[in-house]
Amino acid sequence: MSYDQGYWHTDSCFAKNLDEQYAGTHIAVYIKWCIEKGFLSKDLLVSDTDALASIRDGQMSMSEYFEKYLDWKFGEWNLNEEGNAFTKCYYDRYLEEVSVEVPSAVLGPESNVDFPKLYALLDERLRQFQDSGAQAFYKSKAKSWWKFW
User: Fold this and answer.
1) pTM for the complete prediction?
2) Is residue 145 a part of any domain in this protein?
């Protein structure tokens, strides 16, 4: 299952007269948080060891990794069981929440992202998920704007 792809957001960049390279920023920074939490799949940890070390050392941006190594695609294959459990319940509302709470994480350069604020939001949602369990957390999410029933 695919959670998100940078290609799905290039029209938003075009509409705002922004470079399409920023279409995947919100995804890249979410994956960066997943790295910090230990949520990456074993496959990525093994196959991308050097690249992930470059990210930790600050020699490669997460956006660059997302484009070059993940081909702008983020799906369940990128995460371990724990990461997928949370992401399956939360990711549908992530873009909406981050657009309001941490707008620097959407459609802009990674260097402008307020990571402490982003990580605080994601850490809080993870805590809520862990405290309430998947079923309760999933049911607590607001209806999507496009759902009329």
Assistant:
1) 0.87
2) no
